[in-house]
Design brief:
Layout: E1 10-19, E2 22-23, H1 25-33, E3 40-41, E4 54-55, H2 71-90, E5 102-105, H3 113-120, H4 130-136, H5 141-147, H6 151-160, E6 167-169, H7 175-188, E7 194-201, H8 206-214, E8 244-252, H9 253-258, E9 265-274, H10 287-299, E10 309-311, H11 318-332, E11 339-340, H12 343-346, H13 353-367, E12 369-370, E13 393-394, E14 399-406, E15 410-417
Parallel strand pairs: 5-6, 5-7, 10-11, 10-14
Antiparallel strand pairs: 1-2, 1-8, 1-9, 3-4, 7-8, 9-15, 12-13, 14-15
Helix pairs in contact: 2-6, 7-13, 10-11
Length: 421
């Protein structure tokens, strides 16, 4: 039950999913294979005068008769939901105790406009300037607790009884994959027999939308929400912001086998590489992206020819898609495996994307089918890959490479397999 480097093999025994396609693994996977888009017009806040008015939003049950949650409570709630589903499948945590640490990938925390408006309501209109707002926030303990980055992890650790200090991290769009990597490495080092890895993001809110819009990173195809996310397609013009969460229950294969758990797959390899080239752009030579992919494959004890399918980062921005094409050709040469982008259907779930896409990768192995890249109306001559256009495809899927490339050159790749060896 050791890998080629003598480390404990890391198995996945539970999955949980929430995306704009719905709640739960079964509903999400069925919608993904059907090529369903979860992108819609934003109704959570006014979008007058905004360049982008669409997103992949998750409407939580408790919002049906109340105001929308702000980002941090939204992250906490979705993380709870996916952990509950994953732990139930794994058959762990029923007694409120989990035999390992929590690794939580989530976005940075900030004070949002509902908080500012609530503070301003305490003041006369002429006094509602920043120094007065800061003063009015004094003693608002609930806001402090919500704005403290560690709060979500501490709440989840108490809720599910994980061991040790919970780790909360953010590595831009690689965050969800980083959380999984930390869990895998803790088990491989023998520090834990299991780990709860969660990626969650709920930052479809005005300021985040405006920031990405100012970077010219977002699609403005507002009249066609379902067709707005177009990874690898000739007329792609930016990504679509989205939100969601995923949880993977990780265990050493020895621990999982000893308790008779069903094995959903194994996390066979992890690779990372940063390029430190620019705050938002990757180095044009693709060196860090290429190295991250190679590192993951080598860490898994495989060769590029062993990879059956690549779950793309595939955001739909012109630069990112060309970069991923370049990296694929550098790593795989002329015999590159099929690659497809879940983001064509669920949008870019940012901090959650690496975990969500790892879950979908395991499901592709389980069912021996490749999810499609939808909205692929006209191929781009610069993209020379098989992107599984528009329709899911049965295939022999043994090993999957899942790519996550983040702002600031933070790149993490995972290799997932259906069997230990």
């Amino acid at each position: 039950m050791r890998d080629h480097l003598g480390r404990p093999i890391v198995a996945v025994t539970g999955l949980g999913l929430v995306t704009p396609l719905g709640f739960g693994v079964a509903r999400n996977w069925a919608a993904l294979l059907a090529g369903t888009s979860g992108i819609r017009r934003i109704t959570r806040f006014p979008t007058d005068h905004l360049r982008t008015t669409i997103a992949g939003t998750v409407d939580l049950p408790e919002e049906a008769e109340g105001p929308p949650l702000t980002a941090t409570p939204r992250v906490m709630r979705m993380a709870e939901m996916v952990a509950e589903e994953a732990l139930a499948q794994a058959g762990l945590g029923g007694d409120g105790r989990f035999p390992g640490p929590l690794m939580l990938g989530m976005p940075p925390v900030e004070v949002e406009w509902p908080h500012r408006l609530a503070l301003a309501a305490k003041l006369a209109p002429a006094a509602a300037r920043y120094p007065a707002l800061a003063g009015a926030a004094g003693g608002w303990d609930a806001l402090y607790a919500q704005a403290a980055f560690a709060t979500v992890g501490e709440h989840l650790a108490a809720r599910f009884g994980t061991e040790g200090a919970p780790i909360a991290l953010t590595t831009a769009c690689a965050t969800g994959a980083s959380a999984i990597q930390l869990g895998v490495e803790a088990i491989q080092r023998g520090e834990a027999s299991a780990a709860l890895a969660i990626g969650a993001d709920g930052t479809v809110q005005p300021e985040a939308l405006i920031r990405f819009s100012l970077l010219s990173a977002l699609s403005t195809r507002n009249d066609d929400p379902a067709g707005a996310s177009r990874p690898f397609e000739k007329h792609r013009a930016g990504f679509v912001m989205s939100e969601g969460a995923a949880c993977l229950v990780l265990e050493s294969l020895e621990h999982a086998t000893a308790r008779g758990a069903a094995i959903l797959g194994v996390l066979r390899g992890c690779g990372e590489k940063s390029d430190s080239f620019h705050r938002t752009r990757s180095n044009p030579d693709g060196s860090a992206v290429i190295r991250a992919m190679r590192n993951a494959i080598e860490d898994a004890g495989l060769t590029p020819g062993d990879i059956s399918y690549v779950n793309a980062h595939g955001t739909g921005t012109p630069e990112n898609d060309k970069m991923e094409n370049l990296a694929m050709r550098a790593v795989f040469g002329a015999d590159a495996p099929p690659i497809s982008s879940n983001k064509s259907m669920i949008g870019h779930t940012l901090s959650a994307s690496g975990a969500i896409e790892a879950a979908f990768s395991l499901l592709a192995i389980r069912d021996q089918i490749l999810p499609p890249t939808i909205n692929h109306a006209e191929p781009d001559p610069a993209i020379t890959l098989d992107v599984v256009p528009n329709v899911a495809r049965p295939a022999a899927v043994r090993h999957v490479l899942s790519n996550s490339f983040g702002f600031g050159g933070q790149n993490v790749c995972l290799v997932l397999s259906g069997e230990p060896a």
